[in-house]
From TrEMBL:
Protein name: Oxidoreductase
Any one GO molecular-function label of the UniProt entry: oxidoreductase activity
Entry-linked InterPro entries: FAD/NAD-bd_sf, FAD/NAD-binding_dom, SQRD
Domain FAD/NAD(P)-binding as annotated: residue spans: 4-297
Length: 416
């Protein structure tokens, strides 16, 4: 019996496990997932917790329940991988051998990487919303906050779900308007990027929405520290942004076990150097990488993990059969962007094509619209929760192409 071992039972690891369990001969291959938590978290729902749209309990299910029968789940901390011995060491010293390893250990916020961020203000006047604990604490703070200077702050440019802080700012505008205190709230978006988003057309569209909603953008801001006593962000160039309530996207890093195993990238961020097309580790032939654990130049987003899962499954099967790794990932990402007031936008792009205006998935018919606020896009975002639990995690086919399509996209059009 040979062993396929997957490190991480989040979105990417669960999809990979379920897909490959169905493809591999159960008499020849065992499939094992190791995760430190017994609970699976619906991460896209965290955005809605601070605004009281979702209750925290709605976002979690037992990790065992989202894995197909025949998959072993080990709940344990992993200390390190020994790729030259084809085995993993758990924190309690137990070894777990593998024939093929898939690293799906994700990324996580590290507030301690910005001096002062996790000090006396943390979870009092400074919060994150990328963890269930942070999103819940922020919900409780927003419920009684009477207004002032709300600053949404990006510590770095590489982090999980790059559109989420934009969505937070838009939803905050809508939330405070509904509470009747929008005129008492000054919203500022502080980013190390040169604007609201990295790509020209999406940047122009999202920057325009910021202007319409009265949200100030402070670009090119590289934070050196948080001055907790003065409640002020301080940049390396000595610019300062004061706040009354800080919503931070802390520095993101991959799992410590990646660094401890000597498998991390040159930036020491604990992401695994990965072939951008085959999804195989650049350093180890029988190791594949998926989702936020990679160092690929595409978004760290659930949709990317979904598209990668299709490619990774094919290439793992090719590798086991001794065949060339023929499937190629194109960097495809597809993300709804909540814009408040019951509307959302949608972006669809890959390594080579920036987000463009147009219709998705079909020309003219849509029904989704790219780089445009619509009610249908918002309903699509809400419907994704059902799709996630009932189709995506189980690895069942979805009516969205793994490879990005140019159908419906308009190269020369300006965003609506």
């Amino acid at each position: 019996m040979q062993t396929l071992l997957i490190l991480g039972g989040g979105t990417a690891g669960t999809m990979a496990a379920n897909k490959l369990r169905r493809e591999l001969d159960p008499d020849a291959w065992s499939v094992t997932v190791i995760d430190k938590s017994e609970t699976h978290l619906y991460q896209p729902g965290l955005l809605f917790v601070p605004f009281g749209v979702y209750e925290p309990e709605r976002l979690t299910r037992p990790g065992r329940d989202v894995l197909d029968g025949g998959i072993e789940l080990i709940v344990a901390e992993v200390a390190e991988v020994e790729p030259n011995k084809d085995r993993v060491l758990l924190a309690d010293g137990r070894p777990v051998a593998y024939d093929v390893l898939i690293v799906a250990t994700g990324t996580a916020p590290r507030p301690a990487e910005t001096p002062g961020l996790d000090g006396p203000l943390w979870y009092r006047d400074a919060f994150d919303f990328y963890t269930l604990e942070g999103a819940t604490a922020l919900r409780d703070r927003l419920a009684t906050w009477d207004g002032g200077r709300l600053v949404v702050f990006l510590a770095e440019s590489v982090f999980k779900c790059p559109v989420a802080p934009l969505e937070f700012a838009f939803l905050a505008d809508s939330f405070f308007e509904a509470r009747g205190i929008r005129d008492r709230v000054e919203i500022t978006y502080v980013t190390p990027l040169s604007g609201a988003f990295t790509k020209p057309k999406a940047g122009a569209f999202l920057g325009g929405l910021m202007d319409e909603k009265g949200i100030a953008v402070v670009p090119d801001f590289y934070a050196e520290r948080v001055d907790a006593e003065r409640k002020t962000l301080v940049a390396y160039d000595e610019r300062e942004v004061p706040f009354d309530l800080l919503v931070a996207v802390p520095v993101n890093m991959g799992a410590d076990l990646v660094g401890a195993s000597g498998m991390g990238d040159a930036d020491d961020l604990n992401y695994v150097p990965t072939d951008r097309h085959t999804l195989r580790s650049r350093d180890h032939d029988n190791v594949f990488v998926i989702g936020d654990a990679t160092n690929l130049p595409t978004s760290k987003a659930g949709s990317v993990a979904h598209f990668e899962a299709e490619i990774l499954t094919e290439n793992v099967l090719h590798w086991i059969a001794g065949e060339p790794l023929a499937a190629e990932f194109d960097g495809h990402a597809n993300c709804f962007i909540e814009t408040g007031h019951g509307k959302a936008a949608l972006i669809d792009f890959n390594y080579d094509t920036e987000p463009l205006p147009g219709d998705f998935p079909l020309p003219v018919l849509g029904p989704m619209r790219l780089l445009k606020e619509t009610r249908t896009n918002h309903l699509g975002k809400l419907a994704f929760e059902w799709i996630y639990w009932h189709r995506l995690l189980s690895g069942k086919p979805l009516p969205v192409s793994t490879e990005m399509s140019m159908l419906g996209k308009r190269l020369d059009a300006a965003p609506a």
